[in-house]
Design a protein that fits this description.
By secondary structure, this protein is mainly beta. Helix content is about 0%, strand content about 45%. A hairpin with a 5-residue loop joins strand 3 and strand 4. The termini are far apart.
């Protein structure tokens, strides 16, 4: 009997996750979430997860790396 091996996931395939549903304390269950930009920092961005049902904050994450270039319209 021959067994097949699954190809191992490469490390770069799991560098970044984005939540689609998180537990909401106000709704008392897992709910879909929206991600919004909270703060632009010199070393990245701070983003907040907001419950799509009640609008309360359910978490946050920090994205490392240079922030996107600032575009100023005149």
């Amino acid at each position: 009997m021959q067994t097949r091996r699954r190809p191992s996931a490469s490390p770069e395939s799991f560098e970044e996750f984005q939540a689609t549903a998180l537990y909401c304390g106000r709704c008392k269950s897992a709910q879909p979430v929206r991600e919004r930009l909270l703060l632009v920092l010199p070393d990245g961005e701070l983003r907040e997860y907001v419950c799509s049902v009640c609008g309360s904050s359910v978490g946050s994450r920090k994205l490392s790396g240079p922030p996107p270039p600032l575009v100023v319209a005149s």
